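Key result, reporting period 2: structure in, sequence out.
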C-alpha cells in the first residue's frame, strides 16, 4: 500500500497488526509513523505503551519480549523498530528471523500490540519482508517516480493544506521541483500566501515564484561542505543562487545534512545505500560533536537573518555560513 491507502484505512479506525515502512523518503516515513502512532496511542498513556528499538543495538530476545507485553490502561500498545538491517552477518539474520516471528505473533493478539518496522532499503524477496503480508502491510515510502506520480502528490498535499490549484499547476510544480516532497510541501504553503482564501493558484503564479530546483546540485553542495572543500562549496552555492534556488529550502537541506552528521558522530547507524553511509561517516569524523552543534546554531542564526532579523543580505549570509561550515 502507499501513504494514501494507509491514511484511508486509519481514517476509518482500521489498524493492522504490523506495518513495514519501506523506503528512503523521510517525509513519507515520518508521516506514516505519526498516523499509525496517533491511532494506536489515542486512548492511553504513551509512557507505558511504547517500546522503541534501533536495529544496530537490539537483541532479538528483547524484541520478542516487547511483543509479548500487554497494553497498560489502553486498548493498544506500539512496538517500533528502526533500521533492522543496521546489524551485519549472523546478528542481522537472527534479528530478521525474530521480526518474522513477531509479525506472526502480533497477528494473533487481537491488535493489543501493533508492530512497526522502519527500513530505508529492503529486498522484497527476503523472507522477513514477505512476513508483512495478509493482515500485515508494507507501506511504500519511496519518493514518487515520474511527473505523474509527483503531480499526484501535489494534488494530495494541496488538498491536505486546503489550497485550490488550477489544473495545470500540479504538473508544473512536478517539473520545476521534482520528487523533493518536503520542498513541494513548502512551495505549496508559500504559493497559498499569494491568493485570497478560496482562490485558485495559477500556473503563472507558480512560474513567477517557484525556481527550477529539480536539477539543483544540493548534494554536491553538502558534500563539498562536509569534506572541507570551501572554495568549491562557494562556487556551487553561487551557481545555485544564480539559477534562482530559494534560500530557505537550501538552508533546510544544510540543516538536515548536519543533523545526520551529528547522529553519526553520536554513534547512530543510519540506513541507506552503503556509499552514502560511508560518505556520511567520513564527513562526520571531520567534526567534533561540539563543532556540529555550533554548525547547527549557525544555520539557525542564518535562518533568522533570512527572515529579516539581521540586517544582512541573504546572499552574503549564505556565503558566510557555507564558509563557516566548511572550514
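The corresponding designed sequence is given below.
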Amino acid at each position: 500500500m502507499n501513504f494514501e491507502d494507509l491514511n484511508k484505512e486509519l481514517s476509518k479506525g482500521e489498524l493492522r497488526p504490523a506495518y513495514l515502512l519501506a523506503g528512503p523518503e523521510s517525509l513519507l516515513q515520518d508521516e506514516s509513523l505519526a498516523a499509525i502512532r496517533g491511532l494506536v496511542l489515542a486512548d492511553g498513556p504513551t509512557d507505558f505503551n511504547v517500546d522503541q528499538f534501533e536495529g544496530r543495538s537490539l537483541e532479538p530476545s528483547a524484541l520478542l519480549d516487547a511483543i509479548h507485553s500487554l497494553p497498560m490502561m489502553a486498548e493498544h500498545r506500539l512496538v517500533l523498530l528502526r533500521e533492522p538491517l543496521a546489524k551485519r552477518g549472523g546478528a542481522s539474520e537472527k534479528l530478521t528471523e525474530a521480526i518474522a516471528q513477531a509479525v506472526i505473533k502480533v497477528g494473533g493478539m487481537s491488535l493489543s500490540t501493533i508492530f512497526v518496522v522502519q527500513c530505508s532499503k529492503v529486498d522484497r524477496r527476503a523472507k522477513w519482508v514477505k512476513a508483512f503480508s495478509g493482515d500485515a502491510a508494507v507501506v511504500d515510502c519511496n519518493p514518487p517516480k515520474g511527473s505523474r506520480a509527483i503531480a499526484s502528490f501535489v494534488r494530495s498535499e494541496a488538498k491536505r493544506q486546503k489550497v485550490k490549484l488550477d489544473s495545470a499547476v500540479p504538473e508544473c510544480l512536478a517539473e520545476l521541483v521534482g520528487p523533493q516532497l518536503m520542498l513541494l510541501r513548502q512551495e505549496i504553503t508559500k504559493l497559498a500566501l499569494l491568493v485570497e482564501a478560496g482562490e485558485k493558484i495559477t500556473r503563472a503564479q507558480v512560474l513567477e515564484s517557484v525556481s527550477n530546483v529539480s536539477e539543483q546540485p544540493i548534494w554536491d553542495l553538502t558534500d563539498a561542505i562536509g569534506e572541507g572543500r570551501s572554495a568549491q562549496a562557494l562556487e556551487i552555492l553561487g551557481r545555485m543562487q544564480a539559477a534562482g534556488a530559494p534560500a530557505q529550502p537550501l538552508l533546510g537541506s544544510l540543516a538536515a545534512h548536519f543533523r545526520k552528521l551529528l547522529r553519526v558522530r553520536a554513534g547512530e547507524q543510519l540506513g541507506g545505500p552503503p556509499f552514502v553511509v560511508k560518505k556520511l561517516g567520513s564527513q562526520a569524523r571531520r567534526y567534533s560533536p561540539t563543532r556540529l552543534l555550533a554548525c547547527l546554531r549557525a544555520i539557525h542564526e542564518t535562518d533568522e537573518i533570512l527572515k529579516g532579523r539581521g540586517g544582512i543580505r541573504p546572499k552574503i549570509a549564505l556565503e558566510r555560513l557555507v564558509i563557516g561550515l566548511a572550514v
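Strands lie at 18-22, 50-54, 77-82, 113-119, 137-140, 164-165, 200-201. The CA atoms of residues 261 and 284 lie 5 Å apart. This case is discussed further under Risks and Mitigation.
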